[in-house]
Amino acid sequence: MLGLGVAGVAVGASVQQKLSSALAPAGPIGDVLPAAGGFRYYTVTGSVKKRTPATWRMDVNGLVNAPRTFTMADLARLPQTVLDKDFQCVTGWRVPDVRWVGVALPDLLQAVGVSPAAKAVRFSSFDGTYTESLTLDQARRRDVLVATQMEGGPVSHDHGGPVRLYVAPMYGYKSLKWLGGIELTDKVRPGYWEHRGYDVDAWVGRSNGRDDAPT
């Protein structure tokens, strides 16, 4: 179990359930926090320094027409999308009918303009380690969200706030937490978990070849 805090990797669903039930309710051990509201919480770094809505910034750059730094106020001025969708972890647990609110990624991309040379989108976390990617076609789905609210309130720090990615049709490890940067690229650049053996395309319901990736 001590290896969890070092490697940042959660074990399979059955073992994870035993671990969650064994943890005291008084806070994190390594990179796994006790379950609450049906969710389990993970980090890949052990701890992440909090950012408030006032201090949060997100750079959107790369193969775009107008690189830009977004604040929370900037996101609020863009069209808002509401989704009622499940959150499915590849380890087997699921939280049904979560209400997500934020900016659909296609609307954000339209605000900066996408270069014809762009083929993919790379996301980076302000934890300094966690990254993810989608193809441009995947990123233009209306059920991919730059989320600022969930379950009726702001996205909490443990959930990856103040802003996180939510990719509804894919397993949770694609829904990057603590979103701090978006880069348009000429090809898919595999993210943190893909470099550790997980599928780049993580569609829910399809085998990912591994069963121990956290979200």
From TrEMBL:
Gene3D superfamilies: Oxidoreductase, molybdopterin-binding domain. Coiled coil: none annotated. Residues 47-193 form the Oxidoreductase molybdopterin-binding domain. It holds the Pfam family Oxidored_molyb. SUPFAM superfamilies: Oxidoreductase molybdopterin-binding domain. PANTHER family: PROTEIN-METHIONINE-SULFOXIDE REDUCTASE. This is Molybdopterin-dependent oxidoreductase. It comes from Actinomadura graeca.
